[in-house]
Each structure stands twice: as structure tokens, then as C-alpha cells.
Amino acid sequence: MELQDFLHDLNRQIRDQGDWGKVADYIPELGRVAPDQFGIAVALADGKVLEAGQARQGFSIQSISKVFALACVLGRIGEQLWSRVGREPSGDRFDSILLLEQEKGRPRNPFINAGALVVTDELLTGRSPQQALSEVVGFLRQASGDDAIHIDKAVARSEAQTGHRNAALAHYLRSFGNLKNPPDHVIGTYFHQCAIEMDCVQLALAGRVIAGLDCAPALLSPVKQRRINALMMTCGQYDGSGNFAFRVGMPAKSGVGGGLLVIAPGRASIAIWSPGLDGWGNSLAGTLAAERLAEFTGWSVFG
Ligand code: DON
Predict the structure, then answer these.
(1) Rounded distance, CA 24 to CA 1, Å?
(2) N or C: which end of the chain has fewer CB within 10 A?
(3) Do residues 57 and 125 both lie within one domain?
(4) How confident is the model over 98-143, as pLDDT tens digits?
(5) Which of 96, 256, 262, 274 does the annotation list as catalytic?
(6) Integer angstrom CA distances of residue 44 from 143, 173, 209, 211
(7) Out of 42, 49, 63, 172, which one is annotated catalytic?
(8) What is the pTM of this model?
(9) How many distinct structural domains can be found in the chain?
(10) Same domain (yes/no): 79, 202
(11) Ligand 1: does its nearest atom lie under 6 Å from the Cβ of 187?
């Protein structure tokens, strides 16, 4: 069977299986999204993009933005970042505050919220929130070749109204001296970064720079691609990362909007969206789709 036929088949299978999980409602605007939706897009090394289901339906990329904020910061300050944030899986929820006290304000990795706040703080160094956000959105536009990518301000406002945990994390980081900018500045910028809206086709195209596809714009050096893929594999789904590596075997990053960016290094960049989440806060049907795609293609990095 051809990959395009498989994707249409997968779309049907996912819609038939009936278990969609629960949408994130701690951000009220996301709580209004219907869970029974699914889309997938696969950008291939030869420049083709295959799609099925609701691949052109925009969604909130949320934590997937952390990958691209990290790419911007690594481009700017490189290895210096690692004095402020670690590179180990946390084994805790994405918004946990627990380890931050034990490890004296140095977050375990750049994908848990505490680590992502440090990355955003670094992005804000010497820049206004507007400039920092333009850098991330600009990176995504260049990587995907699509200038329509934008921030959904209603989602950012919605998270600002209920984002007390992130406010707590930012203030706690600041108490350890690991936040240079005022906490309110950092969380305001972070909420807007998370509220970037994209569809599967745009996200799959943007992910080509991480997959190192021949057709991708040259925005990331091979060593940075390798490092980002390693972090996605070990920390991309938070405390569900081991299970994801076991089932899918590809580096990936999830978001509570139900998006999933999966990387088959050198082969493909895959974006999947289904807004219902599992208990770890990762897309339930999206993970199942990634597992079936990995079985069909043999793209697991473990062979
Ligand atoms: O900070 C938050 O809670 C959200 N803006 C992003 C969290 C997220 O996407 C976690 N991913 N599964």
C-alpha cells in the first residue's frame, strides 16, 4: 500500500476507534474544542506533503512551540543555555514544581514548563516581548515557507487568566536567580508563544528543519538538529516519554492543544492533531496514529 492510501485508511481507523480522550480545560479556550477531530500531514524529503483528515484545520500548538523557541535560543547563545536548564527527563508532569526546589531552580529540561520559561526568558534578553515573539513566529514562517502563521490572542488571554501555576513557576525560578526578566513579562510572552496557531500541513513543513530534510530551509545546523531530536525523544512527552519511545520510537513533541510533531530524521516530518488527551496530557488518538504510522513505515529510529 502507498503511504497516501495508508494515511486515508488511518484517518478512517482513528475515527472508528471512538476513544478520543479529554480536551485540556485548564485553558478555558481549549476546553471548548470538540475532542473527536483528527488530522495528519507528512512532509517527505523529496518536498512532497501527504495529508489526510483535518490536516488544514488550525489548532493551538501550545508546548510544540517550545521546540522552536529552543531552536531560536540555541541559535543565539548555543551551549551556554545548559548552565540554566538541564537535559534529563523529569518523570514528572509538565507543570510540576516539585523538582525545582530539590534542584535549586535549575529545571530538568527545556520542555517541562519551568524549563520552557527559562528558554523564553533567554529569548527576551535584550528584546521586547513583541520582538521575542516575532523571532519565534518568524522562524516558523521561514521553516514552513508560510507567512500566514500567527498567534491566537484569545487563547493567550485565556491562559493568562488561569495560568497561576506558570506564574508560580516563574516567580519560583526568579527566587533562585534563574529568571532575568520580570516574571510577568516572561509568562506573558510564554502564553503568546504557546498560543501560536498552525495546521498539520504548516507544522509538518516547519518540522522539516528538525528532521534535516534535503528540501528544508537551512535554519539549523546538523549538531543542533541532533541535540533537539535527542531532547524530543527523551523529554518530548514529559512523564509519558518512555511509553512513547516504546510504542513509536521517534523523537516527538506534544502540546495540550492535541498537536504532535514527530520526526523521522532524514526521512520525514509528521504533524498529527487530535485534541483529546491521555492522562499525561498528550494526544490520545494522535499517539495511536503515530504508533500505526511507525509500524507501517518502519521509521522507528530503533529499527
Ligand atoms: O503552559 C502550559 O500549561 C501550556 N501553555 C502548555 C502546556 C503543554 O502544551 C503541555 N503539553 N502537552
Answers:
(1) 36
(2) C
(3) no
(4) 999 999 999 999 999 999 999 999 999 999 999 999 999 999 999 9
(5) 256
(6) 14, 40, 12, 10
(7) 63
(8) 0.98
(9) 2
(10) no
(11) no
